[in-house]
Write a structure and sequence with these properties.
heterodimer; A: Arc Repressor Mutant, subunit A; 2 domains; 9-stranded mixed beta sheet; B: alpha+beta; Rossmann fold; Elongation Factor Tu (Ef-tu), domain 3; Alpha-Beta Plaits; 5 domains; 6-stranded mixed beta sheet; 14 helices; 27% helix; 32% strand
Chain lengths: 417, 626
């Protein structure tokens, strides 16, 4: 039996691009070669069929999907029926666990009661709203156009329809004061949602905001300010009964995003849509990658399966929707590239993902899975420096250890040698 | 190539003219030398390489000649073939002693001055050296083909300096060849023939010695008395060694073995010695069978004036650094070094140099020819430090500075000659004053240019003096200096502490008045250069146990990727791997990780205290002292 299996569907369209955004998303209605918003669900379903066929041909027999997540871009830019169609195709190809978690990200302006109702009828269980801030000038800096009142209304409707509801916040925008941030967190808490994500604004150089900072038009986010805001968020959210379960995520117990936990637990997932990543913990009899590159599309040959020959695979779709559409039309799994993850790299990933979680990083399980060991010396010194706590064989990042998570990861990686 | 009539070993002294060319960097010495070779017919035009005499890459790029060579050039004047010995001299102040040996091998000197620039300080100093050696001076203005040439003006200046008529100053262009024939004729007419004793015991002056990877040590000599034969055992009078020479010969323009070298001739000897310290510039070679009674005058060992530590950035390169220095030493008797260990920088060598340029050339050759990545510590001059107990220490490295109370510190001084256009007199005075210089005299070379004489601590000159002189005079001033005794001074050792630990590489011996600015600048620089870490890092400057400056690197509060979902994992892992590789280039100072780049940047000179924060902090530190 393989690990839980998840499906991610990327919807690469937005009405407009936000200044800080570096996601793979496009504002055009039609990008050519059939890659249009109107035709998108059809293409995504086609990709699912290709992927499913590829899995079967390579001896990868996934269990029914435990979670499905529609992200973007803005998935709710598509008609609700399209989202449901795509979900139906997942169900048809892989089946669905009984209590599967089905999430879509939503722009507060692009949904209403009818839209949400259609999703609920179609089997969706969870809505994640991009709220970002409750403060108008911060929203403007972030290029967010939504009306803050729509967040309140749509969260209420979603709850009434029986959805689990999450909102996303961003802190550290230029000009955002500590008071602004407290106000946003407070507003999010008062929505009564069971899940809140809070992300430090991260500037990528090639974004509009990256260029504005490089040219000195606006101030760069400040690490100390962001650290203070993280501490504020953690204190306020815990007080409100939302427990951190990952560095940037807080939830009422039992309402954690199971889909996202899957990423950090390194499960299998199929990524559908331009630029989406897929991950398979075990693939077998991998042929020479050079040869595969030479063929049209990526094919990873596999037939017999012995554990010795297994290794992990991560692959990513062609990012541009038009090129992606052409690949689909040529009956290819539209991967742009892939990497075979070595045992050593796999160990690194388990560490760097695991230590982000409140459930912590299990030293024994790690040794069992990878054959490697983290030295006690390093664990003891991390404990002594107040970066982690130890609970039996688990180590869990402290508040300080969450803020200095990369440093903790580095130390753990170092101790592998 | 035309057949030469005068054969080495059989040329009458009356037909020999030995001369050198004294010129500032870039005044066109090599171009003129090349023209001479070409005109004499010994280098066919098609084989003319640009600047034939400068063979090392660095020399070509920097336009300076480090190692001189001696070429035998035939020249026919009035129907008679003469043999000219053209000796190339190093142009820079660091090689002053070598210049003086080259001059001792000549009877005449061509003073070559750029007609667009006029005479420069180092040229002037070498000119005085030539006059001291009783050399006949032939003044020449070069680059007369350039539109910006002002030959009349500079001819006046030169005439004033050497006491000739402006019309006596020859005008040439190395580029077009104009006037070079006249110059050669003039050399034959004006430069006296050598006056050694052809029948006496053999005495030859070593005026240069180079290591050639194919031939071993090539020693350049000027026969003064007697003759040396190719099968004769040779004796080095100062070093005291005896050799069977492998070859003796002349250069014309390639090495040509000969059977003998006679009085007045210039040539080379290949001794088979292993390194140039066995064949020292200034030493006298004589015949082992019939040795001369007294050596030629003027021999001395080159004395290092500037010391610095050289450390490989990657400590694994230490053996390679040792090997590279050993190889350079073959070629450079003035280079001295011994192993040194630094807490901060690991294993390296404490090296002694003749001066800053010498130091620069050595580190550049180490990196260029040997591919070494080096950190060099701040240059240090030798101090004589008397501790309270009366014990005297020679301190060439701040780490040797004695602890506890100091009775007296004596530092080396130099006499500095600075030539500058008169509008920069004020700027030069300010600069010299800031560097603890005292002015003695000032002379007008012409209505436009002055020569200023200062006495300045060598330590002040070796740091960033020359760069500042250039920048404050828009590049017009030139500098020459030579040793000029010593003086007692109020010097202190400033230590830099990171997290309470003294970092030896950053310690410096400075004048008490400058201790604050050094401390403030260094701590500020390091605050910028050292990345924030998970704890607060105090950076302090101290004299003994007294803290004179302090900066703090605040603790790192956030080092985490906010989002790490399915599409971020590969990128994140690669980033971590890259960071990990970067960590390997970090030095651990206690618990503090310091990037190599921080050492390199902190130890680089030339940054002055101009921003307001620095000035305020220096003032505050000085007040707290008062």
């Amino acid at each position: 039996m393989r690990q839980p299996f998840e499906v991610y569907v990327h919807v690469p369209f937005c009405i407009r691009r936000c200044g800080y955004c570096d996601f793979n998303t496009y504002t055009a209605l039609d990008l050519g070669e059939g890659a249009s918003r109107a035709n998108y669900a059809t293409l995504a379903c086609l990709e699912m069929r290709h992927v499913h066929a590829w899995q079967e041909a390579h001896g990868i027999h996934e269990p029914p999907a435990s979670t499905v997540f529609f992200g973007g871009g803005t998935p709710t830019i598509l008609p609700a029926e399209d989202l449901v169609t795509m979900l139906d195709t997942v169900r048809e190809l892989w089946g669905m666990e009984e209590h599967a978690e089905i999430t879509t990200e939503a722009n507060p302006d692009s949904v209403d009661r009818e839209y949400l109702h259609t999703l609920r009828q179609g089997g969706f269980t969870r809505i994640s709203f991009g709220m970002q801030s409750s403060v108008p000038h911060v929203l403007r800096t972030l290029d967010r156009t939504h009306d803050p009142r729509n967040v309140i209304d749509n969260v209420r409707i979603a709850k009434e329809l029986g959805f689990e509801v999450s909102v996303d916040l961003i802190y550290g925008a230029p000009g955002e004061s500590l008071a602004d941030w407290c106000a946003s967190v407070q507003t999010a808490i008062e929505l009564g949602v069971d899940h809140i994500s809070a992300y430090a604004l991260t500037i990528e150089p090639h974004t509009k905001m990256g260029r504005q900072i490089a040219s000195g038009q606006i101030a760069a986010p400040n690490d100390d300010d962001e650290a203070a805001k993280y501490e504020i968020a953690d204190a306020m959210l815990s007080e409100a009964g939302l427990q951190w379960y990952e560095i940037s995520n807080w939830a009422a117990p039992g309402h954690e995003s199971r889909h996202n936990l899957g990423y950090w637990r390194n499960v299998d997932w199929a990524g559908i849509g331009p630029g989406a990543h897929s991950h398979y913990g075990e693939v077998f009899n991998v042929a020479d990658p050079e040869q595969q590159d030479a063929k049209a599309g990526v094919e990873i040959a596999a037939s017999a399966s012995t554990a010795e020959q297994a290794c992990s695979l991560r692959a990513w779709d062609i990012p541009h929707p038009r090129v992606w559409a052409v690949a689909l039309a040529n009956h290819r799994v539209p991967w742009q590239g892939y990497e075979l993850i070595s045992a050593a790299e796999n160990a690194e990933e388990i560490i760097m993902l695991g230590i982000r979680l409140h459930e912590g990083f299990d030293l024994d399980a790690f040794t069992e899975r990878t054959g490697r060991r983290i030295t006690n010396y390093v664990v003891d010194s991390l404990v002594e420096e107040g970066l982690v706590t130890r609970d039996g064989e688990r180590i869990i990042a402290t508040l300080r250890g969450r803020l200095l998570n990369d440093l903790v990861i580095e130390r753990l990686l170092d101790s592998l040698e | 190539m035309s057949q030469q009539h005068n054969q080495p070993g059989f040329t009458d002294q009356s037909l020999i003219r030995n001369f050198c060319i004294i010129a500032h960097i870039d005044h066109g010495k090599s171009t003129v030398a090349d023209r001479i070779l070409q005109l004499s017919g010994i280098v066919p035009e098609r084989e003319m390489r640009d600047r034939f005499l400068d063979r090392m890459d660095i020399e070509q790029e920097r336009g300076i000649t480090i190692k001189s060579q001696a070429v035998r050039v035939p020249w026919t004047y009035d129907g008679q073939e003469y043999t000219l010995g053209m000796i190339d001299t190093p142009g820079h102040v660091d090689f002053n002693y070598e210049v003086s040996r080259a001059l001792a091998a000549c009877e005449g000197a061509v003073l070559l001055v750029d007609a667009t620039q006029g005479i420069e300080a180092q040229t002037l100093s070498n000119l005085y050296l030539a006059i001291d050696h009783d050399l006949t001076i032939i003044p020449v203005l070069n680059k007369i083909d350039l539109p910006s040439a002002e030959p009349d003006k500079h001819a006046d200046e030169i005439a004033g300096l050497i006491g000739c008529e402006p019309s006596d100053v020859l005008r040439v262009s190395g580029k077009t060849g104009e006037g070079v024939k006249e110059l050669l004729d003039r050399i034959v007419v004006d430069v006296p023939a050598p006056k050694g004793d052809p029948k006496g015991d053999a005495r030859a002056l070593i005026f240069d010695s180079v290591y050639d990877s194919y031939r071993g040590i090539v020693t350049y000599i000027r026969m003064v008395d007697g003759e040396l034969r190719s099968r004769e055992k040779l004796h080095m009078m100062s070093v005291g060694t005896t050799y069977d020479p492998i070859e003796i010969g002349v250069i014309s323009p390639d090495m040509m073995p000969t059977r003998a070298l006679g009085a007045g001739e210039v040539g080379y000897v290949i001794t088979g010695a292993k390194d140039v310290s066995q064949s020292k510039v200034g030493d006298t070679i004589t015949s082992a069978a019939n040795p001369a009674k007294t050596p030629l005058p003027g021999y001395r060992d080159p004395q290092p004036m500037v010391y610095a530590g050289l450390f490989p950035i990657d400590n694994a390169q230490f053996p390679e650094l040792r090997e590279a220095l050993d190889k350079l030493k073959l070629n450079d008797a003035a280079l001295v070094y011994e192993p040194e260990t630094s807490v901060a920088l690991g294993f390296g060598f404490r090296c002694g140099f003749l001066g800053l340029l010498h130091m620069e050339i050595v580190s550049e050759r180490l990196s260029r020819e040997f591919g070494l990545d080096l950190i060099s510590t701040a240059p240090n001059v030798p101090y004589e430090v008397t501790a309270e107990d009366g014990k005297v220490h020679i301190v060439t490295n701040p780490s040797e500075f004695p602890e506890g109370k100091i009775k007296k510190i004596v530092e080396p001084m130099v006499a500095a000659d600075i030539i500058t256009p008169k509008e920069f007199i004020g700027a030069v005075m300010d600069l010299c004053q800031e560097h603890r210089g005292t002015m003695s005299t000032m002379e007008y070379l012409s209505t436009e240019r002055v020569e200023m004489h200062y006495r300045i601590p060598l330590a002040e000159v070796v740091f960033d003096f020359f760069d500042q002189l250039k920048s404050r005079t828009k590049g017009y001033a030139s500098l020459d200096y030579h040793e000029d005794g010593e003086q007692a001074a109020d010097l202190v050792k400033v230590d830099i502490l990171i997290q309470g630990e003294r970092i030896d590489a950053f310690s410096a011996i400075v004048h008490r008045d400058k201790a604050y600015s050094y401390g403030v600048m260094m701590t500020k620089k390091l605050r910028e250069l050292i990345p924030r870490q998970q704890f607060e890092i105090p950076i302090q400057a101290a004299i003994g146990s007294r803290i004179i400056a302090r900066e703090t690197i605040r603790a790192l509060r956030k080092d985490v990727l906010a989002k790490c979902y399915g599409g971020d994992i590969t990128r994140k892992r690669k980033l971590l791997e890259k960071q990990k590789a970067g960590k390997k280039r970090m030095k651990m100072l206690g618990h503090v990780e310091v990037p190599q780049e921080a050492f390199v940047a902190a130890l680089s000179t030339g940054e002055s205290a101009n921003d307001r924060d620095t000035k305020d902090k220096i003032r505050a530190a000085q007040k707290s002292e008062g």
